[in-house]
Amino acid sequence: MKIIFKNILKKINVDFLKVSFFNSIANILKMILGLINNKIVAIYLGPSGIAILGQFNNLFNITRTFSTFGILTGVTKYISEFQSHPDKQKSIFSTGVIIVLISSILSIILILIFSDDISKRIFFTDEYRWVLQIFCIGILFFSINFFLIAVLNGLQKFKKIIIINIATAMLGFLVLIPLVINYGLIGAFVSIIVRESLVLIITIYFLIKESWFDFSKNITIELKSIHLLFGYTMMAFSTMFATSFIQLEVRSFLIENLSKIDAGYWQGINKISLLYSNLITASMTLYAIPKFSAAATKSKLKNEMLGVSIIIIPLTLIILILIFMLREYIIIGLFSHDFMPMKNLFLFQFIGDFFRIISWILSYALVARGKTQQFIFLELFGGVLFYFLTIHFVQYFGIIGTTYAYSVNTLIYLLILIIIFNRSIE
Q1: Which of 54, 218, 391, 415 has fewest C-beta within 10 Å?
Q2: CB-based contact 229:78 (threshold 8 Å)
Q3: What pLDDT does residue 4 have?
Q4: Averaged over 249-258, what is the pLDDT?
Q5: What is the Cα–Cα distance from 187 to 178, expressed in whole angstroms?
Q6: Residues 235, 373: Cα–Cα separation, whole Å
Q7: DSSP per-residue letters across 168-194
């Protein structure tokens, strides 16, 4: 027994534990602020308001992918991979800046032109088109910010990223509360725009002393770096399609075929999943891609993955069981009594979450090893499957059918991912 225990301890990655510890402190603080934010939003907007706010959040994530052209994961990978090649690092940084600037400007133009159509499609009214026009002001700012954080991640400046994340959470808290209380749904929209735009100032403050952070030098674009970064564009777009776009379409389907309130319940259970899964995966995301990229052989990669899995899987099970047992108290604490019908959605949602978190470990390994085609296939397949499963189950079972669809989808996704991973990683 002692020998088995010692072998397990050897597999646990000490660096990962250190990153996890400091990042968990930051994420606990973010979670506490997020819980307060969520409570205020739930009280003042109700289930229907939360459903519409979910539409806007999905639009934000879709825009982020377009405005950065999906290169952020590639930036992190190659900045990390080229640690001993400063010229290549500079080329990735310089090329990435230009790509983000061009993509952001194009995104702004498209949203301004189609603001009426987008408002009607997402919010089911054109009265929010002016919100989209304000949203365009912040696109350039938050796109540059996401890019700079991707660079920091590649450089493994974990402490700075953690500090920036804390500052972002604090800023979001200070902005959202007064705006939602005084202006309701409009205030919630504006708070997201303001938070994501102003955080760039915080990021630049922490980067200004970095030797590579110097825009006075020539910013050039190189074809080789374009080719490397664009290799991750389709991966990012496929992820966006499978998550934000599909969520937007599912929520629209629920609003049109059930009600905004039912869509709000679905948004609520997804919010709970997001809160605890962020706590679990934030350290994994921060740590995994750079470390998985640096693993030179298949055996080293599997050792890194095993070290992460030994921590993540038991932690996930414990959290899921605790939340399920306390679900009624959590609904009242996070939302209000208006959301109590949501308690029936927990079981199959959490079964799906468990499969999803396991699959993330394998997915990060595929991303880190540049297995682009396999990843794109999985994301597109998973997104389309979830959408059609949802339509099918909702027609027969109502709102709880969304969780049936989710658990079946994540299980199928995980099984296919295991097969692809074993055949792809060399």
Answers
A1: 218
A2: yes
A3: 47
A4: 93
A5: 8
A6: 8
A7: HHHHHHHHHHHHHHHHHHHHHHHHHHH
Residues in the chain: 426
Q: How far is CA 174 from the centre of its chain?
A: 22
CA dihedral (369, 374, 375, 377) in degrees, to 10, reads 170
Contacts of 53-56 with C-beta under 8 Å, sequence gap 24+, read 53/185, 53/188, 53/189, 53/267, 54/247, 54/251, 54/263, 54/267, 54/270, 55/122, 55/123, 55/248, 55/251, 55/252, 56/122, 56/123, 56/131, 56/188, 56/189, 56/192
At 6, list the tokens: 């010692």
Which tens digit of pLDDT belongs to each residue from 38-89?
888 889 988 988 999 899 999 999 999 999 998 898 888 888 888 777 778 7
Helices 372-397 and 246-257 sit at what angle, rounded to 10 degrees?
10
Between the CA atoms of 44, 47, 49 and 54, what dihedral angle is there, to the nearest 10 degrees? 120
Task: Name the nearest CA neighbour of 410 among 265, 273, 302, 245.
Answer: 273
Is the Cβ–Cβ distance between 71 and 99 less than 8 Å?
A: yes
DSSP assignment of 336-386 equals -GGGGGGGGGHHHHHHHHHHHHHHHHHHHHHHHTT-HHHHHHHHHHHHHHH
Residues 94, 219: contact at Cβ < 8 Å? yes
